[in-house]
Specification:
By secondary structure, the chain is an alpha+beta fold. It is built from seven helices and five strands; from the N terminus they run ααααββββααβα. Helix content is about 45%, strand content about 15%.
Length: about 140
């Protein structure tokens, strides 16, 4: 039920921005939405090509760029990551990223949300948000060491 609401939101946002709503875009968004996690374009491509074998990796990248531009998805990047990761959770939250397997966990923390932005930055920038990325080694990777 929740997914259907998200698909309707996807259609409405795309149309509001004058973007085409194609079956490929809907398939890509739906697969990302139902994954309930963070997927790279390559992971997403491998999932959607099961339903639409003729879809290209370029189509997945383009769709993700479109979704990101209209704030339907969030993008997570890190220095150790081989790719960007995307999620449909666009609520304010932070991430914990495993440096070995690149697993990404969402963090909701009032303690992390307390950030005193220096006055000098407020004068120079119109700050619209922030996100904190913590890096470490997950329990699964710790147990295999």
């Amino acid at each position: 039920m929740h997914t259907k609401k998200q698909i309707v939101e996807c259609i409405e946002k795309c149309r509001a921005h004058g973007l085409k709503v194609t079956p490929q875009r809907l398939l890509i968004y739906n697969e990302l939405q139902t994954s309930n996690g963070h997927l790279s374009p390559e992971q997403l491509y491998n999932r959607v090509k099961e339903y639409q074998p003729n879809i290209s990796l370029a189509t997945v990248y383009k769709a993700l760029d479109v979704f990101y531009s209209v704030r339907l998805v969030a993008k997570v990047t890190c220095l150790e990551c081989t790719s960007a990761y995307y999620e449909t959770n666009i609520e304010h939250h932070h991430h914990l990223i495993c440096k070995l397997c690149q697993a990404i966990d969402d963090i909701y923390s009032d303690q992390l949300d307390i950030l005193n932005i220096p006055e000098s930055l407020i004068k120079e920038y119109q700050i619209s948000g922030f996100s904190i990325q913590l890096e470490g080694i997950c329990k699964k990777c710790q147990s295999t060491k």
